[in-house]
Q: What sequence folds into this?
């Protein structure tokens, strides 16, 4: 607002006998203030609010103020949000009779102005005298969960009442239509957003936001545990990717002594294991005998210890036979150290914090299976060339706090991550560091201070094929790998055994299988990095791999986050610039109409841009294999435009200079300029949009 307008407004106030009544008269006779944004009415109102502070004698009281308050209350339901606070302040509505305010809000509610009633209640702090279920139900039906959160935000008792109400609605025997029936004609009613799944998600969000004990919501918690139970049965008996011990740990911690869940467990065991298997597991999970079906109870009576030992041994032998197909740690078992004391940890620090050191870092935590709270790191793995250290984080943090030195561990971790002279290798470090901060709040800014970090997740996005020594047929032997396991398979020839991935990493002592898995997850990063640095070109990466990854990140503390978003320079380095496609002699200029290309599916933006300039472009579909580009190029005499590892494969299948590697970190316009310059394509005004788009 201009100074001149402000001065004019203030002069107007000074001339009025009753500025408060004058403002109301203006607002009542004008519709300008009802729009969004900073209207003239808004400017006048906020100036009056400031002016009153400078001229307190102007404020009203007694009967006169009550009359003004009654007038302004009628106006507030139509009022834009930015005028509420100034008007409440000017007319001192917080001092008004509370019963009168509650009656006014109730009147708004009965007229169907549910949002307006809730907003005004929040502004006037009326919630403790209202029925939280009554106020919030229509808001939830209108998908206004954020307003509901604000409504109970400052009142723990109301938060608990709301959560108990929502949990009641999530009971499988509860008929949700009983709630929705009175609101059938509700404006902006969204019944598709009002179901048990949506309500369950809201409950978990509120439990976490308000730090309420989940035991307050047994229905929602039981349903989430039941989904976890079904998921665990799928992992063990359908997908077959979870060991028996690991599975048993999670089943026991999920079901516990909950009778309802024990009943579902027995039914699932009968479906997947038969009566005998169900009896064996029922005994192991301490299911009360009276809960067992007759057939299972009879089997339980006949079950002997020896039977159980033989079955477990048989299963373990089967699983051991599969181990040899997976990546194996190349260091002896005695070189894996599980650290639970500060004396051991200090010796580890001395070895890790050495200039020039290369360290593989990984972290493990107990799967949350969608329960409340962020997962907290339970194990920190640090791999060096000859040994691996497994740090028992909860134990070390507990000891440090008992000794009054709780900054000891955060200090070491921050020194490690911020030292540019030490190369840190990880895979998807953002998630790891988020869980690390949940375990130790002093580490929440570690990501901002990182230097000398290589996130192999960024390299994985470039290594888009198998190791040179392994065929596609070999990959099809097992279920398709993903993530780090797939990268290990591509680069080292064998994938990681991920059967312990979903272990309970907080349970002590760790099983031997867990220790070997944790050590392998960190150590394989060293082997991948060493292999890629020795022979980057075999994997479609540039010869300056080390410099492009470590060098760039060492200069920019936030480079890790950039890598995850694929904003950092491509690990392919110079490869992306296409140096190998340089012709041995200059080519004559050609027009876009004479230039035909086939674009790989990761370059669709480039393809569309070139088509706008008149180039004959064939775009591969997302589901097309890269090799289709070579077939099209040979049949139609097109140039292949690709990037990363596919360049290595495709350039050998077409003539020299007929395959070009584009810098994948550039935008489509820069990529197009690069292509046009390389092939000496001259674009004229008549070429632009000369082809059908």
A:
């Amino acid at each position: 607002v201009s100074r001149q307008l402000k001065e004019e407004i203030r002069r107007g106030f000074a001339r009025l006998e009753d500025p408060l009544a004058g403002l109301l008269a203006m607002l009542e006779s004008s519709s300008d203030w009802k729009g969004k944004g900073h209207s003239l009415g808004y400017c006048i109102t906020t100036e009056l609010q400031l002016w009153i502070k400078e001229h307190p004698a102007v404020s009203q009281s007694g009967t006169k103020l009550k009359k003004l308050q009654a007038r302004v209350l009628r106006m507030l339901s139509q009022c834009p949000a930015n005028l509420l606070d100034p008007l409440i302040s000017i007319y001192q509505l917080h001092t008004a009779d509370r019963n009168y305010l509650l009656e006014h809000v109730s009147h708004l509610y009965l007229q169907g102005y549910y949002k307006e009633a809730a907003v005004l209640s929040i502004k006037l702090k009326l919630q403790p005298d209202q029925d939280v279920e009554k106020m919030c139900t229509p808001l939830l039906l209108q998908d206004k969960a954020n307003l509901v959160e604000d409504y109970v935000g400052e009142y723990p008792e109301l938060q608990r009442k709301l959560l108990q109400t929502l949990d009641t609605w999530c009971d499988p025997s509860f008929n949700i239509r009983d709630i929705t029936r009175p609101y059938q004609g509700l404006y902006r009613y969204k019944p598709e957003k009002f179901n048990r799944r949506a309500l369950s998600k809201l409950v978990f969000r509120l439990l976490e936001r308000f730090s309420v004990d989940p035991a307050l919501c047994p229905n929602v918690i039981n349903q989430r545990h039941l989904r976890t139970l079904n998921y665990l049965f799928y992992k063990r008996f359908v997908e077959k990717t979870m060991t028996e011990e690991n599975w048993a740990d999670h089943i026991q911690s999920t079901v516990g002594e909950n009778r309802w869940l024990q009943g579902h467990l027995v039914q699932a065991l009968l479906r997947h294991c038969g009566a005998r298997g169900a009896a064996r597991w029922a005994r192991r999970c301490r299911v009360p005998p009276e809960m067992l079906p007759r057939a299972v109870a009879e089997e339980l009576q006949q079950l002997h210890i020896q039977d159980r030992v033989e079955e477990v041994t048989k299963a373990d032998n089967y699983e051991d036979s599969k181990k040899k197909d997976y990546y194996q740690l190349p260091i002896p078992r005695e070189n894996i150290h599980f650290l639970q004391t500060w004396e051991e940890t200090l010796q580890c620090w001395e070895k890790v914090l050495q200039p020039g050191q290369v360290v593989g870092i990984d972290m493990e935590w107990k799967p949350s299976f969608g329960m409340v709270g962020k997962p907290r790191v339970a194990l920190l793995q640090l791999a060096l060339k000859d040994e691996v250290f497994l740090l028992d984080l909860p134990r070390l943090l507990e000891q440090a706090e008992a000794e009054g030195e709780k900054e000891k561990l955060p200090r070491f971790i921050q020194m490690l991550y911020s030292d540019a002279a030490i190369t840190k290798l990880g895979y998807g470090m953002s998630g790891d560091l988020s869980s690390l901060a949940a375990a130790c709040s002093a580490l929440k800014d570690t990501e901002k201070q990182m230097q000398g970090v290589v996130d192999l997740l960024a390299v994985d996005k470039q290594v888009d094929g198998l190791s040179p020594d392994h065929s596609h047929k070999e990959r099809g032997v097992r279920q398709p790998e993903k993530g780090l396991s797939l990268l290990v398979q591509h680069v080292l020839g064998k994938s990681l055994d991920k059967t312990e991935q979903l272990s309970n990493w907080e349970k002590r002592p760790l099983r031997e299988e867990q220790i070997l898995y944790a050590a392998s997850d960190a150590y394989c990063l060293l082997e991948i990095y060493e292999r890629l640095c020795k022979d980057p070109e075999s994997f479609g990466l540039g010869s300056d791999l080390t410099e492009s990854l470590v060098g760039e990140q060492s200069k920019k503390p936030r480079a890790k986050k950039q890598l995850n978003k694929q904003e950092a320079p491509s690990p392919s380095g110079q490869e992306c610039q296409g140096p190998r496609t340089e012709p041995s002699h200059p080519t004559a200029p050609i027009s876009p109409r004479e230039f035909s290309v086939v674009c790989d599916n990761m370059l669709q933006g480039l393809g569309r841009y070139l088509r706008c300039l008149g180039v004959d472009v064939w775009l591969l579909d997302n589901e097309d294999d890269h090799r289709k580009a070579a077939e099209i190029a040979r049949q139609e005499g097109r140039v292949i435009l690709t990037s990363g590892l596919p360049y290595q494969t495709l350039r050998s299948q077409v003539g020299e200079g007929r395959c070009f590697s584009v810098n994948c970190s550039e935008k489509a316009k820069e990529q197009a300029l690069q292509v046009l310059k390389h092939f000496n394509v001259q674009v004229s005004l008549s070429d632009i949009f000369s082809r059908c788009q």
The chain has four domains: 3-160, 220-304, 336-464+483-549, 592-687.
